[in-house]
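Archive transcription. Copying these from loose printouts into the bound notebook so they stop getting lost. Printout 1 of 2:
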Amino acid sequence: MKLIFWDKIPIGIGYPSKIFLIMKLIVFFMALGLLQLSAKSYSQKVTYSGKKIQLERVLKSIEKQTGYFLFYKHNEIKDLQPIGNINLRNVELKLALKEILKDQPLDFFLKENTIIISKKEEQAPSAPHYTQADLIQVKGRVTDQHGKPLPGASVRVKNGKQETMTDANGVFTIKDASPGMVLLITFTGFEGKEIKVINNSELYVSLHMIEAQLDDVVVIGYGKQKKELVTSAIGSLKIQDEDVRQVSSPTRLLEGRIAGVNLSLGSGNLASGERVSIRGFSSITAGNDPLYVVDGIPLNTSGMSLTNFGEEYSPLAALNHADIESIEVLKDAASAAIYGSRASNGVVLITTKSGKDGKSQVRVDISTGFSEFANKNKLKMANSELYTLQYNEGALNYNNQYNLKVGDSGFRTPIMNPFYDSPDTDWLGLILQKGYFKNLNSSFSGGTAKTNYYFGVGLTEQEGVVKNNEVKKVNLNTKFSHKLSDWLEIGTYNKGNFIRNNQVPGASLGSTIIARAIEQRPFDRPFKPNKDYYVGGTDELVRHNPVQILNEQDVYVDNYRYLGTFYGQINLSKHLNIKSSYSADIGYTYDYTYYNENHPYGTGVGKLVDYNRFIINNLFENVLSYNQSFKLLNISGVLGHSWQKQSHRTVAVDARGFPSPSFGTLTVASEIFNANGSVSEYAMESYFGRATAAYADKYMLTATLRTDGSSKFPKHNRWGVFPSVSVGWNVSKESFMDHTNVDLKLRSSWGKTGNQEGIGNYSHLPLISGGKNYGNVSGIAVSSFGNENLAWEKADQFDLGFDLSLFNRKVDITFDTYYKKTTDLLYSMPVHATTGMTALLSNIGSMENKGMELSISSTLQLGPVQWRTNFNIARNKNKILSLLDGDAPIAIGDNRALQVGRDIGSYYLFQANGLYQYDGEVPQQQFDLGVRAGDVKWTDVDDNQIINDNDRVVLGSSNPKFNGGWNNTFKYKNLQLDILLTYMYGQNLYAAWKPTGLARIGHTFGQLEEYITNRWTGPGTTNVYPRSVLSLSHNNKNSTRFLEDGSFIRLRAATLAYTFPSVRVNNFEIKNVRVFGQADNLFLLTKYSGWDPEVNTNLDPRYSGVDLLNNPQPRTFTIGTNINF
């Protein structure tokens, strides 16, 4: 257990006394401000005067005076004549609009706090006269494009006086209607429709939301902003109910959808770890994950994620993807700097669904399906005959090479198939299965003018494609807000989550369960005739028995997590409000690993590892928001204070000796082999502000400043300052663009962010740890020297981009180019061994990332078919600029290195240069070591005829040259097809599973058929596949032999769905029913010889791109239904 120096944590950061004082002062000034308030809402009276005023200018003034939202089409008003003379003094809004538009070919509609301006309908000839007997009653129902009713929609007779509105179910009735009459149906934010009355049959009218309204607002740090005013690089994904695909984790929704965002997976195991990278990697050891902010709560991902067998799982496991409304990705420093020291790797803002005003809504989503191991037979293994042939040939070559005869020491004995009359064992088939799953998600939401509520629940049960890999998950989500008055609002967001994950061995144990199966000899069996297991690592089995491992272990992780926020907001005026909130992120993990006495690791007595972890993260924030317009100038801003403290406790016990395989509890263990625990905490205090100015929505300027103080650093380096500035120009609002169908915005930004993730809470302090044993006497020892000069990593980033819309917004193009430089890289610098330590965390280098991003989206109507498509591509180039002293490579692991001038994903390998064809070609020094004709010829870099680590070179990269996605949606009436493709090009993968066994010709492990059938058997037979020889490691060095092209195109998901319109059963109405079928990972195009080019043994970017036969991503088939009531 570590002993820490509590006095090193400053009072202003480590303890909340200052915070409580600040909060008291804030409450005092808020109360003082309230004395000046009168309970009033936005004014609905309008004052304006002038001559020859452009209509758009008058409308903007009304919008600012009343606080109403204003919707109109720019091309419908831009060419209208100016208003000659206008003089309004405290006039009611409706009368003011009539006066302003009286001489214009425009009409208006008022709905709640929204004004819609549209063209007047052309006057049609007067309808023929009908007698009373000819008149009919028309009844109809108005819904949105998804079948949801639109209560309050306006239904009026064109060129007539009759007018009505739809009720809560979207139903309307027009009495005394005449055949041939035309009904005009409108609703706020939707495209209106004209419907001709033919007879008295019931009408069904579907209105489509105006495209511009779907994406006109984006979420930014501590607020929202109109998309047209955004001056930074923000990727936005709106989750529409009909578009959302079934995913195992919310981050999977980002796959292929936003340029510059790349998602990597640890494996295909359930709840496997994910690494989201935004514009490449910016750090070596301080963490490369973005900051996740859920409903305003910055999530703690360090130490909070599930772990088991060393594999870290998704940090967003506590969220249900069915509850998510939108995801924004802050990619540049200008948008992310408001989060300061945690935003160096970008920010992912997740907004969950809330209740909306109107009738209560109930949604039920049910899905089920199965997963299967994709491309199981891609790795074609040698059968018993080939295996025996190559092994005996390898034994013969070895014996002849060293002149060994039967009875000599070291003689290699040939083998034979003991089960020659039986078929080979399908080792993979013994551990794989079809993994069935079922999901249920339900929500209940609604609201009034004062109160909004949302309640969601999710249940998941899932089996993996490897036996005993199972997940059970429960998600709860509640949101509630209530306006106590016009000036005071309170609310709370709460999310709870429970996961039980039964896991299987991953690569952290030295070999995955998949590798343990496929590396077995083809003729071996899992069970003896008496049903006992064959024992691995002996003459019986060359690897641990995978069936025995899965059957004789009980391994699971229970994780409980709670995210909650409680807030109060006071509107000091219609332009100014203050919001105070308390948030908590609480997690408890119980990690249980039990190997009974029959397990290979149970050592005959059983072994239990019992691990408990509790983390609580408290956050207090106070944010003052301002927004006011002065004629054409709009000023907005935020000022805030934040205080955060995290506490972390762990207890781990290793016990042995259990009376029976059935007793796997700690209390019955005969020996506590090892016990340890830790207690740690850190705190951070922050002040931040942002100011935005927009003139005529044409010229925009935003400036941000944040300062963070963290207890992870010494006092003199504790505070970091992170500024940013961005500018934008809406060129399309200039007069010279009036007669074009082009929208163009130019933007540029610069900012500075920081990084403190991935380092210990006390890295700057000398530490002492217990648990040391000196002659059976317990003791303590220095475990770290600390570094009193430790400081933040800092990143400067410049971004230049544009947003372009063509053909009346049918085609949207977004382009960005950027340059990012990270300095003061945190890295463990080697120290002399005489110190008793191996490394000291220091700031020792710099790194750059530069690249570009392009996104093209369009909506095309091809006859009755609508085609929506989005294509994105991104390129990022990473380079280490400085690192320690000199440019020599720093080896990390068996096959990687860091070197100045190279990127963080570079490999460090021997270079293969074909095979020796004759013994005479082999240098004498290597010949003496057993190298012969048919063995690999390595490049002798230093030309000394000795092949050692000095001959390794830095080459290749696990980082792609470019990557992206292509999403397509085809819609025909109520039928919809979604196809998502993702791709990556130019990255290298290292097939580490080959030199360890499957491509090690002559080894005892199972072998690839390709390497045996094409092996070298004499001069000229091959220059690629070496000879078979036992006990020679020369041919299996970490080398370019196993470095492969990892480029791929993957059909990520295909979904076919049909939406049925509303159905009424007695008095019970189903608004719509959507049924769908979905397939994931249907096909994969790649040159990589392994199963999956996307899985990574280690999510650390220094080691990514290495495959140790992790479980590939499964192929999944899902059917389900979404029902809205």
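Printout 2 of 2:
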Amino acid sequence: MHFNNQIWAILWKNMKMTNMKEFGKELFIPSITVFVLLMVQKGEQGTGKLFMSILVPVYIPSCFVGLCRQLLVEYVNEKSNKYRDLYKIMAWFITYIIKSLIIGSLILITLLYKMNFQQSLEIVFCFMLFILAQVGQTLLLSTFFSNSQLAGEFGSFFQTILSTFYFASLYQMEYLVFICPQSIISFYLMNILDNNNVENITFYCILSLSIHLLAYYFLFNLLEEECMKSRKCLWRRQNKTDYVQLEDQMEMRRQYDEEGLAFTSIEIVKLFKQYGDVVAVDNLNLKIYSQQILCILGQNGAGKTTILNILTGLLEKTSGKILYFGKSFDKKRDEIQKLIGFCPQENLLYDQLTVYETLQYQSMMRGIDSNSDIDMWLNLMQLQQYSNYKTHELSGGNKRKLQIALALVGGSQIIFLDEPTASIDPESRRQIWKILKDIKQINKTLIFTTHFLDEAEELSDRIAIMKQGQIKIYGSSENIKKELEVGFTLTFGNIQSSEQQSQIKQLFNELECSSGSQLEYDNIKYILNQNQLFSIVERVYELSNTQNIKIQLIQNTLEAAYLKLNKDNLEDDKIIKEYSFPIKSTNDIKTKQLFQISALLYKKYYVLKRNFALQLMLILPMLILLLAYLFGYQLLQGQTQIQLFVSLFISQSFSLNSSIFINTPILERELKIRQQLKQMGMSQFTYIFGTFLGDYFIILILTIFIYILSLQIEMLLSSEQLLITLILFGLSIISFSYAASFMFSSNQSAIKIFPVFNLLFCYFLPQMIELQLQNQFTELFAYMFPLYALNLALKDDRQDYSIYFIVQFIFYMFLYYILEKQFILFENRQDLQDRNNKLQIQNIQFGYTQNKQVLKSIDLQLSPQKILSLLGPNGAGKTTLIQLITDCLKSNWGSIMYNENTIISSCQQSQGLWEDLTAEEILYLFARIKGSIRNVKNEISQILRILSIKGKIVNMSGGQKRKVALAISLIGDSNIIILDEPSNGLDPISRRNLQNMIQAHVQKRNSSIILTTHDMDEAQYLSDNISFIINGQQPFPQQSVTQLIEQYGSGILLSIRVKNKEALDQVIQAFPQNQKEGLLIVIKLGNDYDVPQTIRILKNLCQEDLIGSFTIKQANLEQVFLRQCRKQYNED
């Protein structure tokens, strides 16, 4: 029953998730095919019959390729995440059979209606078997792939090629026909169209279905041994395990630690994981306790994600032992995995489901039917009011809450969270912190990773800091800071004499504690632990009173300990000293244009060299032409048939090839690369000319291949005429593809639909209309459609068709130019006369509709060599303002003014990158686009070293891609650099190196920077000026960091955690001005509070064992942010 419920749950989810708009696109090719079929009469000879001889065997099977590709991509994606249970396979199988039957019915009804077939029942049955066999074939293909994108590309190519096996029947090689379902159905339908019977066709269809399903079963079990280790056999029935019963067993198996305070949830013994020669986890030992929160910290590549994947069963260990509640994970994997919840770093939500439906689906998958469980988590996550919202309508913070709820629903006892608060603002982070603390109290074990060290310090009971696959230090935040001796920084200021300096140094030499660098002539800093601080308090008190020395005390955070532990990876002053190559860009417009065109050609070469899908689009047309010549050409009789055949297959080849040309403009608009190139000074003419030139070289390859093949074929046109015709046709088909690119919003849908649209709508359909209407629109169609004009040129050597291609080229290129300028390349900039500023924004207003105003009267100024930070919560309008500055959106009102010759570089939140290039190649490309002509290679190698970047983009993690995006913005000598959350996803060491590099760039390159970030420490560290945006408005004009903290900060806060209620009154008596919450007391200290006296009081409270711990937080920018941020949340 549980098994059937899971199949039903996935079917329910799949159908809910079906995007009718996308499914409508899948119906486009069948609809055009049906329309053409309706125009051809049964038994028709000549052109109509030849059309049918290619349309039926190739395009009827191709109607299902798009759906099969979708199944392949989605199933391989789930398979790569180890979701490979029988119920999932069955659900995917049924879902795509239903979708295929819809498409099949459309074609089948047309065939039965138009052709008046006598064997209707047999046709329907065979068509059903064909659909089942093709879906089974798709599952079979999935066993060979772990990469979903590659699976989709190769699967489409492979299934398209299989359609051509039908032509083997023309050479009496029927055994090739019956290998695959595509050629079987083509062979069967073509024989029926010719009124021929096919014996045993039902047997062949059943045989094909059986072979594919059996082969899938065999290969699944043979090739996927890792899956078999982590799951039971694919076809073995899995016993239902009630998680409540397992909880009872856990109570009996609790293992208390040495303190008797908590029991062990997870025990890891000598865990080892190796990838080839790389050791990811090195003999790791760890105990994780129930009702506690463990945080795993470390740099990118330290082994954090590997451990999470091993502990959740997504990855097999090399050796070692893992125990959950005393049970071996290897032996009881299925039972234990029912207790595990996992929240991935990115939100993996179903856009078409509501919040409630999303949780309901997860609950159904875990076999829990109770709605009360869902309601409980909705309330705990503060999502009750959003339960009927579609998931894509939620804010970033609420999406993370829902993703965490998915990890909890259904009885999860151990929760793994991979960066649970990534990409959300500090106020939303604090809401999630409270939720996680509440979850811990209901007997849950939480293990999470984060790059926010204040988050680790706030949430964690224990922290494990990893380095090179090993845990370097483990314990509570306080213990780690004590062990690494980074407790407090004591600063002595206003030192007027060398005698005072000597007294201070003598005091600290006795303690043997480390001193920091002397930042100013009258300041000395020392780092102390708590015991050292208490031991010298009386001497400090004396120095303060008798020597008039100003004392400041700062409690260091976990970040100080983390940086100290990883100091060998930290590059501070060295970066600023070395990052000094003088970069020079050419000011000559023609030279810069040549650089930019060469960069576009360079990009096209490497993308084509490394992109398997584009290579298929180039090879497949040539392969089809070759097969057509080998299998079909010699069987034709008469000049008319030969010319029709030549025209048909050349047109089909170019229609497939056209997907290469439509790919570039759509992809670069989709990834926002087009706007980025414009910001860097690339003109529209340069972009179009460079892109066109690269594509024209590609079409020349196919042109030369056809020319060589034409030397072997008797054609109406001479080889020289054919060559000239194809050269001119290349101009028109590329420009037509560019203009048609605005028909599509997605690169994937364009690649899938446009080649078939080109052939059916722009080649077949005009000819069918002409046959019916006796050539009334020949001239019009010839000027409209490049493929139709090519068809006329190939069949008629008496007329020169060059004019058609030239007119098409001019018209479609002009149309593309207008469309791009109108819909993509907005122009918000105006000239700025004030030379004291590089950028000035006055009264900018923007709204998507009249009722939805996003920005209201924004005013900003950016001075030379300054960093301006835009701060605000999610949804405040920061990214919208960035898009206006970078011309990605057009403002409704106001002005954005720049100095002349301003070159802008940007690092956007969702940065588009050419994934087939390496980081070095991309940086070199953008350096040439910016016109850099000197020291380019030196600068690139230095940036790559500092940011630790290497390899191809497609193989990089999200954090590595962010580094590349930042490097692109810094390369060259841009005047203004826009950085939209540049450090998102980076570990603290990488983040600090990046921040130092940004500062170095401003100092050395005379650049100005606009920065958005959710890391307030980063904003405080980098910014010269700050502007808050709250609900699209500025609550106050931009100000310096110091001004904001002094005016809006909460001051210095002393937080004391009292040990018991009895001690509460004594602590309150010592600090009368306080706020209390339970056993936590918060005291607001003035900026000039008496440091020695405060230390004295804290020392006495500790000695009397009244308090457990205390923290001293300096006034900071985060206090200002939280106060302003709550205004927006209150308004919402």
